[in-house]
UniProtKB/TrEMBL annotation:
Origin: domain of life: Bacteria
Protein name: Lrp/AsnC family transcriptional regulator
InterPro entries xref list: AsnC-type_HTH_dom (IPR000485), Dimeric_a/b-barrel (IPR011008), Tscrpt_reg_AsnC-like (IPR019888), Tscrpt_reg_AsnC/Lrp_C (IPR019887), WH-like_DNA-bd_sf (IPR036388), WH_DNA-bd_sf (IPR036390)
Alphabetized UniProt keyword annotations: DNA-binding, Transcription, Transcription regulation
Entries under Gene3D superfamilies matching the protein: 3.30.70.920, Winged helix-like DNA-binding domain superfamily/Winged helix DNA-binding domain
The species this protein was found in: Pseudoroseicyclus tamaricis
Keyword Transcription regulation on entry: yes
Length: 141
């Protein structure tokens, strides 16, 4: 099911959840004029159909001193084993496989630009890494 296939009630439910995902099914039901069970069933269907893809906890970094953030694009061969090694390197927060001219991107964090640069050097020394390109993130919007 795609987002375009949703009925108006499902769209309203998603809008309410976007505004406050912690609302109870009973509270959502009162606003939507549905029973708690009907809301739970609709949420379960949206999860099953992949419209609600998961629940995320966004935590601040464990070390608040690690304020510098960057992305590093990576060309690797073979992909999976090398990316597993990259994801285990301290300072690497997330690793994504990509389609296109770059194989992966890693989001990394360090205390400053020097630490990020050293981390990029460390990643480039991993066997199977062809090249890395560092991009410092200035701010999140």
């Amino acid at each position: 099911m795609s987002k375009a296939d949703l009925d108006p009630m499902a769209r309203r439910l998603l809008d309410l959840l976007r505004a406050d995902a912690r609302r109870t099914a009973a509270s959502l039901g009162r606003e939507l004029n549905l029973s708690r069970t009907a809301v739970q069933d609709r949420i379960a269907r949206l999860e099953r159909d992949g419209i609600i893809g998961g629940y995320t906890i966004c935590e601040p970094p464990a070390d608040a001193g690690h304020r510098a953030l960057a992305s590093i694009t990576i060309e690797v061969r073979p992909c999976d084993p090398v990316l597993r090694r990259i994801s285990s390197v301290p300072g690497v927060e997330r690793v994504f496989s990509l389609a296109g001219d770059v194989d992966a991107i890693a989001l990394v964090r360090g205390v400053d630009a020097t630490a990020i640069s050293e981390l990029a050097d460390r990643l480039s020394s991993i066997e199977g890494v062809g090249s890395v390109t560092l991009r410092t993130i200035l701010r999140e919007r």
